[in-house]
Amino acid sequence: MVLAKTQRFQLFLERLAVAPPAADADGALALLSAVLNGVEDEHAGVPHDPANWQADGRMYPPQADAARLVPGRDGWRRYRNRGHNTLVGVDGAIEIVRLDGTCLLRKPGAPSEGKGS
Amino acid sequence: MMNADLVAFKQELAVLLPGTTVSFDAPHEATGSWWIDIARDPYAATVLWRPGFGFGLFSSPNEGYGEKPDERYAEPQMAARRVAQLALGNETPTPLWLRDVRALLGVAQVTLAEELHVNQAAISRLEARDDIKLSTLLAYIEALGGQVEMRVRFKDFEAGIAKPVARLEES
Fold this sequence. Notes:
Chain B: GO terms for molecular function: DNA binding. Chain B: It holds the Pfam family HTH_3. The structure holds 2 protein chains of 2 kinds. Chain A has one domain (5-46, 66-107). Chain A contains 2 helices and 5 strands, in the order H-H-E-E-E-E-E. The longest helix of chain A has 19 residues, at 25-43. In chain A, 28% of the residues lie in helices and 19% in strands. By secondary structure, chain A is α+β, with helices and mostly antiparallel strands. Chain B is α+β, with helices and mostly antiparallel strands. A 5-stranded antiparallel sheet of chain B has the order 1-2-3-4-5, with helices on one face. The radius of gyration of chain B is 18 Å and the shape is globular. Classes of the chains: A alpha+beta, B alpha+beta.
């Protein structure tokens, strides 16, 4: 069933929130990409075409070359797109924040084993 | 460090839209994407720049996540002119229409009219319409030196579609 972009974005956030957490930054980016591509494959009505530069009605995950460092948060990376900053932590945490500062999602990374026990 | 294209874009925008705030969000890698945030109350926009790609502009509503640009400009001066068009137009982003295309290319109505063998008034009337024949659109764009691509896209296939003969019929 084809859904409007706003509906698909909300579905993406909901699915990402409940997905098993990642353990590191690469895993977090891979998780986010898999969830978003899954939603778009099911409901965008547009085939996945990352090589095409032009808007096609589909949402795409951040690309690795779009990474920025995050001052004061060692190991974190920030990915920028038109309307959001997406941050992934060295522990697999994910934050999606609108440019006006509104936090849309804050997902902890996978708990590390053995520490403190 | 900002490259020549980004500097030229900022300078051109300063001329076209005095008082505009322009912020540059630089990538960590030299080959990465720059994001340029532009604010001129009540207008705000974001522009993407990548090496080898140029400037990507968004003229559709901002309602999702990770959308690609709607428009692409190789030259910083033309990208800045398009941003100025959007800023001085509606608050809501709108795609290019005929007059916008002609203005970006710096072609006067009278020049285009000569190319199409009509008078200037005919061009003015045409540009004021929000619905024209495909053949007229083709004639207009081809007279400016461009091409119109027509494709249809469905969930299971997409393909180019036959174009009518370019002909300026509307008066």
